[in-house]
Amino acid sequence: MELNEITEIIIGCAIEVHKALGPGLLESTYEVCLIHELSKRGLRVEKQVAVPVIYDSIKLDAGYRIDLLVGDAVIVELKSVDRLHPIHEAQLISYLKPSGKKVGLLINFNVKLLKDGIRRLAT
Fold first, then answer.
1. How many domains would you assign to the chain?
2. Cβ of 58: how many Cβ atoms within 10 Å?
3. How far apart are CA 89 and CA 120, in angstroms?
4. How far is CA 90 from its chain centroid?
């Protein structure tokens, strides 16, 4: 499956979750529901995937975790905040680089219309 196909499915599933739950819940609630929707569509989803920091030529666990890794190709960072800030995009970019993944989605569920809370980033 191509990256664009995977991201379209992820966005569609996120919209379904948002329609059903609305804004204002905990990020963890949206995470489990989105995992369920993605799994129903046959996509492999890993949650809370460790991203090591490379320092002095060694991999170190600094506590960084990708919310979701979908199809071993797309990083999904979930938020439930008043609005997205540049630091949220920087966080996703910092996960893309060491993971070797090319595409990430930043999804903020705490919005009236979910399309206003989605950012697609590529390296």
1. 1
2. 8
3. 9
4. 13
